[in-house]
Amino acid sequence: MNEIFLVGLGNPGKKYSNSRHNIGFLLLENLSKKYNSNFILKGKLKSYCSEIQINNYTYRLFLPTTFMNNCGEAVRAIIDWYKIDLDQIIIIVDDKDLPLGKIRFRKKGSSGGHNGLKSIIDKLQTQNFNRIRIGIGSPPLIKGTDSFNTISHVLGNISQKEKLILDKVYKKVIESLEQLITKKEEYIINELNSFDKKHI
């Protein structure tokens, strides 16, 4: 079947719509908009869903409604409903351990402390699934301590300066996703992993 499944991670609701933790949502919203498609709520998939066509391939886009910490439930529901192999699905997620603007495509790996990936690993009982991680930069130190202000960083809103960088990142990732059906996966992975916002 000529289908690709993309799941963006984030939290539903206006409160979180522009937060760094919602980069997965924001990227897929950009992709859906590019093809004039809208997201529709599908309760059985615990997600808002959109569908686009690229070169006779159907791209199915999902924004889980479960909140980040339980998004594995939505991923599990999607896989079970469509009866797909794990290699057909790509998770798109923010990463505070990557500098802002860096991209990493991995075919497997640990959660790296990310609650969304942790939930997916728990529900699928494997770390072997594709994920595109998008850097949001490290959280700042809490004044006068050695602790990082992680929660307010990931749930904080994307600044205008950050948005200019991330818009270029979204464009690059979307171009690569569109080429998944015409180019070898290794080429796509290399293109994304070597991407540097300075060279744009």
Question: What does this molecule look like?
Answer:
The structure is a single chain. The protein is of the alpha/beta class. It has a single domain (3-192), classed as 3-Layer(aba) Sandwich (Rossmann fold), CATH 3.40.50. It has 6 helices and 7 strands. It has a 7-stranded mixed beta sheet with strand order 2-3-4-1-5-7-6. Strand 3 (47-54) and strand 4 (57-64) form a beta hairpin. Helix 2 crosses helix 3. It starts with a strand and ends in a 7-residue tail after the last helix. The model has no long low-confidence stretch (mean pLDDT 91).
Features:
200 residues; alpha/beta; Rossmann fold; seven-stranded mixed β-sheet; 7 strands; 34% helix; globular
Q: Report the CATH C-level class.
A: Alpha Beta
User: Helical stretch count?
Assistant: 6
Radius of gyration: 16 Å
Major β-sheet profile: 7 strands, mixed
What's the domain count? 1
Question: What's the total number of strands?
Answer: 7
- Strand % is 15-25%
Overall outline: globular
